[in-house]
Amino acid sequence: MEVDLCFVMDCTGSMGGHIEGAKNSIKKVVEYMENMEPAIKIRVGFCGYRDHCDGSNRLQIFDFTYSCDEFKNRLSGVSASGGGDSPEDVLGGLNAAVTSMTWRNPTRVLLHIGDYPPHGRRFNNTDDDYPNGDPNGLTAEQVLREMQSAGIYYFFGKITEHTETMTRVFQSIIGEYPVFDLKISPNPEGLVEKFFDAACSAINTAITLRGE
């Protein structure tokens, strides 16, 4: 079984308390999957997103690789920074993951981790520098349907309650999908365990769905 697994993660300053735990979780998942070969042969990739005010640092993309060591080395350089208002460039991050990465394996899994929704009043009622939506013209319908057309299964890891409306809107477009509760527990290891379980569940679910 050959799988492409892409982690899409909010890397703005609001993720400062979570990002090291998330990175450690991703590394643990990658190491575990490497030990699953040859039963599951997996390529891993990463797309970090921030916000429109962050210029050249808005997106941080590592294309797919079979090398666990290469991926972990790249991920070590990711840090939480930037972001202005509460909403983030979620649609830009998802769009980049779908269109800029070289999806190739038959089973394609995208696991999105974030604590705030996209820009636009349909997603939030907080401080929003772009209340009319994505300033580059992206829409959730466009991004998510392109994801579906590419045969990519979407899963979401929830860090806070601020993404509840986003989840409802997304599911109204592409149907139900698993949402994993990754809210931080008092024990940092709790995130690693939750994240590991979520990633393994996402892969197994995608394999099952593709086989139907």
UniProtKB/TrEMBL annotation:
Compartment(s): Secreted
Occurrences of domain Hemicentin-1-like von Willebrand factor A (ranges): 5-100
Superkingdom, natural source: Eukaryota
Keyword vocabulary terms for this entry: Secreted, Signal
Designated name of the protein: Hemicentin-1-like von Willebrand factor A domain-containing protein
Source organism of the structure: Rhizophagus irregularis (strain DAOM 197198w)
